[in-house]
TrEMBL record:
<dbReference type="Pfam" id="PF00528">
    <property type="entry name" value="BPD_transp_1"/>
</dbReference>
<feature type="transmembrane region" description="Helical">
    <location>
        <begin position="84"/>
        <end position="101"/>
    </location>
</feature>
<dbReference type="GO" id="GO:0005886">
    <property type="term" value="C:plasma membrane"/>
</dbReference>
<feature type="transmembrane region" description="Helical">
    <location>
        <begin position="293"/>
        <end position="318"/>
    </location>
</feature>
<keyword id="KW-0812">Transmembrane</keyword>
<dbReference type="GO" id="GO:0055085">
    <property type="term" value="P:transmembrane transport"/>
</dbReference>
<feature type="transmembrane region" description="Helical">
    <location>
        <begin position="175"/>
        <end position="195"/>
    </location>
</feature>
<keyword id="KW-0813">Transport</keyword>
<dbReference type="InterPro" id="IPR000515">
    <property type="entry name" value="MetI-like"/>
</dbReference>
<feature type="domain" description="ABC transmembrane type-1">
    <location>
        <begin position="137"/>
        <end position="318"/>
    </location>
</feature>
<dbReference type="InterPro" id="IPR035906">
    <property type="entry name" value="MetI-like_sf"/>
</dbReference>
<feature type="transmembrane region" description="Helical">
    <location>
        <begin position="54"/>
        <end position="72"/>
    </location>
</feature>
<keyword id="KW-1003">Cell membrane</keyword>
<feature type="transmembrane region" description="Helical">
    <location>
        <begin position="247"/>
        <end position="273"/>
    </location>
</feature>
<comment type="similarity">
    <text>Belongs to the binding-protein-dependent transport system permease family.</text>
</comment>
<keyword id="KW-1133">Transmembrane helix</keyword>
<protein>
    <submittedName>
        <fullName>ABC transporter permease subunit</fullName>
    </submittedName>
</protein>
């Protein structure tokens, strides 16, 4: 993450060059593309009624005005201004993408309804179906939090055992290697027999998807710890408990976080399937429900929410990793 932050700072420094004369030219270009999107949305009629067309035109128009104002004031905003300058090309590309998206779907109908939706179609879903989407987000986060939390907890404990104990690894590693490649969704028939409720079965599937990468990477990290660390600690009187908690686990944390990132993506990938097991609400249930009615705009809207949620959690995980492993810089 530190490397990424450095890249952002370097990129910001490089992208800030056009703003030296007092005007952020990329911001002007971004304002122009967003204004183009607003004009296309408001000026041309929709081929098919989608709803929220004027609302989308207002939002993009206000965005254009804000970008125009930022073009002359971004240098006074400090860190936030440098961040905006860095992402300026993306703002230009986003405005162009919205305009092209509008033309090919709502205005010209080249990408027809219901298979494709214009941006105001997605916006209309968020406006008109907000209460149900909020309930689905809450149900999805509850299922994911319980499943992923329990999965990584078990996976971490099992991984430490596999990496520390040769006897445990002798029996456990072949089983883990056998179960690991099997997709979590392949266990659905068994879950109906072993778990009393469909929610418990869904939790198990999410936990399995998130826990196995954590177990494998944790075992790999513990097993790869430099033996010299153990020798030094034993020389100072450390027992096995100290070696595990104070030497093996801290040294293996980079591998543990790699497993967490992998498990996070896998757990989100199986969420949709897990919420098909008799769930009453949830983004996976919502996607399945709307697909049965060919309401693909609602499907795309739910997929965007899932992508944003996953990206936000990944960002939080990066922040947590950087804070937790800051002590290792220059040591390992």
């Amino acid at each position: 993450m530190s490397d990424a932050s450095g890249a952002v700072r370097a990129g910001a420094a490089g992208a800030a060059a056009p703003a030296l004369d007092g005007v952020w030219r990329t911001g002007l270009a971004a304002a122009a593309t967003w204004a183009l999107t607003a004009a296309v949305t408001a000026a041309f009629p929709d081929v098919v009624r989608w709803g929220s067309t004027l609302l989308f035109a207002w939002i993009t128009g206000i965005g254009a005005v804000l970008l125009l104002a930022l073009a002359f004031t971004v240098q006074r905003l400090g860190r936030a201004g440098r961040l905006l300058v860095h992402y300026g090309p993306w703002l230009v590309a986003l405005g162009l993408w919205f305009a092209l998206w509008e033309l090919t779907t709502a205005k010209l109908g080249w990408l027809p309804k219901p298979f494709f939706s214009p941006p105001q179609g997605l916006l209309n879903v968020y406006v008109s179906d907000a209460p149900r989407l909020l309930i689905c987000i809450a149900y999805t986060l509850r299922l994911w939090a319980i499943g992923f939390g329990s999965g990584i907890l078990v996976g971490f404990v099992v991984g430490v055992g596999l990496g520390w104990s040769r006897r445990f690894a002798y029996w456990g590693m072949p089983i883990l290697k056998l179960i690991g490649p099997v997709p979590a969704t392949a266990w659905i028939p068994c879950t109906f027999f072993f778990f009393p409720t469909t929610f418990a079965a869904s939790v198990f599937i999410v936990a399995l998807a998130g826990g196995i990468p954590v177990a494998i990477l944790t075992a790999s990290g513990v097993g790869a710890v430099n033996r010299a660390f153990y020798d030094v600690a034993r020389t100072l009187g450390a027992n096995d408990r100290f070696l595990v908690l104070k030497v093996a686990i801290p040294a293996a944390l980079p591998n543990v976080f790699v497993g967490l990132f992998m498990g996070l993506y896998y757990s989100f990938a199986v969420l949709v399937v897990a919420e098909m097991l008799g769930a009453k609400y949830g983004l996976g249930w919502y996607i399945q429900f709307m697909t049965s009615y060919s309401a693909y705009a609602s499907v795309y809207a739910a997929l965007i929410i899932m992508a944003v949620l996953c990206s936000g959690i990944v960002k939080l995980l990066f922040v947590g990793r950087d804070r937790l492993l800051s002590w290792q810089k220059g040591i390992l």
